[in-house]
Design brief:
Elements: H1 2-12, E1 18-22, H2 36-45, E2 49-51, H3 63-72, E3 80-85, H4 87-98, E4 103-107, H5 117-122, H6 131-137, E5 141-146, H7 154-164, E6 167-171, H8 183-192
Parallel strand pairs: 1-2, 1-3, 3-4, 4-5, 5-6
Length: 197
């Protein structure tokens, strides 16, 4: 609870004015995958500006393709809360090493390639994490994980929590968060963003 209050207070001093949703790899039509399209629609109903686009290189999710796309096409900037899931969470963290953002919401993120050759090809895991840069560039970091995630061990998520000093919510039975809705995420994002209207 202490972390949540601190993070919320930090966010109040510079609330995001827009949200960018960065999906996990393997999602070709992102609006039809997991909770991405649902979150976009729910935020739009509340007057929040949202960017959600099909990503280049959707299966490998190479950093060399995704980071420039996030910068140039999704316009992630100091006014942006980036909501990243799985590979999208990893991309969001690497993005915040280089660029200032209003905040990050990390869902099912990891810090290593987990021994997976496809993940290794993405390029995100080829060097140490710059946690100091992420903390300096992201005004607030929230994180969602589940101890029964079939792909990502809890210790990987805990490393992100420790490195970013994230406001962590850890569940025990939510898997890899691949449901069509995610009400707790919506509630968190609405605390951190200023609607346009």
């Amino acid at each position: 609870k202490k972390h949540a209050r601190r993070g919320f207070a930090r966010a109040q001093h510079g609330m995001a004015s827009r949200v960018v949703i960065v999906p996990g790899n393997g999602c070709v039509h992102v609006r039809d995958a997991n909770w991405y399209g649902w979150l976009e629609r729910e935020l739009q109903k509340k007057g929040v500006e949202v960017a959600l686009k099909d990503m280049p290189d959707p299966y490998v999710a190479r950093e060399t393709a995704w980071i420039p796309f996030m910068h140039d096409e999704l316009s992630c900037g100091e006014d942006t809360l980036i909501v990243g899931h799985s590979s999208g969470a990893v991309a969001a963290l690497r993005y915040a090493e280089r660029y200032k953002v209003a905040g990050l919401v990390v869902v099912s993120g990891c810090v290593s390639d987990l021994g997976d050759a496809n993940e290794r090809k993405s390029g995100y895991y080829s060097r140490p994490w710059q946690w100091d840069s992420i903390r300096a560039n992201a005004r607030v970091v929230y994180q969602f994980g589940s101890s029964d995630d079939p792909f990502i061990p809890e210790h990987e998520m805990r490393t992100i929590e420790e490195g970013t000093q994230a406001n962590m919510t850890m569940y025990s039975a939510r898997g890899h968060f691949m449901d069509p809705t995610f009400p707790e995420l919506l509630a968190t994002v609405l605390q951190l963003v200023q609607p346009v209207s």
